[in-house]
Task: inverse folding
């Protein structure tokens, strides 16, 4: 039987007095905001029941929705732009405003939290990408309704919208197999994110199923090293080694489009090209896929739809705070361009 969590349990965890914990959980004066936040977060982690009135959002509606993502991702509009466009479009139709904020993972939550959250100037929050768990728990503890978008915090019982990464990886691999490729590699650091892990799972499952269904010999190349020597989430050293071998894959499924773009450059440096020397397929279908030579075949995650559905889930959560959370998976499509060669 699980041990019952009490105020003393929280006090012991934080090395505080039981009376201080009691004051923090009942919003009494004499407790610093930092200590109050630590107590609330620890209570949630340990499973201590917190009075919902403590966490309630003020009844006055602001008409604002916070859209939060890691600060470094604010520069990557190519990836997040379609999601943000979907969010803005749906919020505008509902006559709501969007406040975009960056979260600094290097700062404590009480220092790095955007003022719109700290000052309770929003009615809800959409949290995008790889945001540290502490921030998510702190926002949840404040009582502000949350929906996660393309996150990897699957263990939290929160509404979550993400691409169907496993099926997308499966379909990308089947696409290469149906083009008669029998030496296929997955390129990407599977420890980089949960999405990479799921795409790799789809890659291996598709090969196993194709082998079983067609009794065909297929050679797999798992280029999944976690050590990265460049900005992109893959090992350039591992790619170099495989390119120098006579027995290299005829096609690579890249963990995302930026990996594929970098591979195109690495091939060019070596006097090689896609798809003649090696076929490539990416994931995300960012706009740059149309600009590369060759134009990149990619798995489209329908990111604008992700943004729209995230807003719809958040509005539902704001109206029905006690309903069970949902995980919404957006299906994928392959956008075929010129980077995959069909073999005879």
Result:
């Amino acid at each position: 039987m699980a041990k019952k969590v009490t105020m003393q349990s929280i006090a012991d965890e934080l090395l505080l007095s039981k009376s201080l914990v009691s004051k923090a959980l009942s919003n009494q004066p004499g407790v610093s905001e930092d200590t109050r936040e630590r107590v609330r977060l620890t209570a949630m982690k340990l499973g201590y029941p917190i009075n919902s009135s403590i966490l309630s959002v003020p009844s006055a509606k602001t008409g604002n929705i916070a859209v939060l993502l890691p600060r470094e991702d604010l520069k990557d509009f190519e990836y997040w732009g379609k999601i943000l466009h979907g969010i803005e479009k749906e919020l505008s139709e509902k006559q709501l405003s969007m406040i975009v904020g960056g979260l600094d993972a290097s700062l404590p939550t009480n220092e790095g939290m955007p003022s719109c959250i700290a000052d309770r100037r929003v009615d809800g929050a959409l949290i995008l990408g790889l945001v540290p768990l502490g921030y998510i728990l702190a926002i949840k503890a404040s009582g502000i309704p949350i929906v996660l978008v393309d996150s990897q915090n699957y263990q939290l019982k929160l509404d979550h919208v993400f691409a169907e990464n496993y099926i997308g990886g499966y379909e990308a691999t089947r696409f290469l197999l149906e083009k008669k490729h029998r030496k296929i590699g997955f390129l990407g650091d599977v420890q980089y994110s949960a999405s990479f892990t799921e795409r790799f799972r789809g890659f291996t499952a598709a090969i196993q199923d194709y082998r079983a269904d067609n009794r065909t010999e297929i050679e797999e190349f798992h280029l999944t090293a976690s050590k990265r020597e460049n900005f992109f989430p893959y090992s350039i050293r591992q790619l170099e080694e495989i390119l120098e071998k006579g027995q290299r894959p005829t096609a690579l499924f890249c963990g995302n489009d930026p990996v594929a773009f970098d591979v195109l450059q690495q091939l060019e440096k070596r006097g090689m090209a896609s798809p003649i020397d090696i076929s490539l397929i990416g994931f995300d279908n960012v706009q740059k896929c149309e600009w590369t030579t060759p134009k990149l075949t990619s798995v489209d995650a329908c990111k604008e739809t992700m943004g729209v559905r995230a807003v719809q889930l958040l509005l539902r959560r704001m109206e029905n705070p006690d309903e069970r959370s949902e995980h919404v998976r957006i299906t994928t499509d392959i956008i075929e361009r010129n980077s995959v060669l069909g073999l005879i």
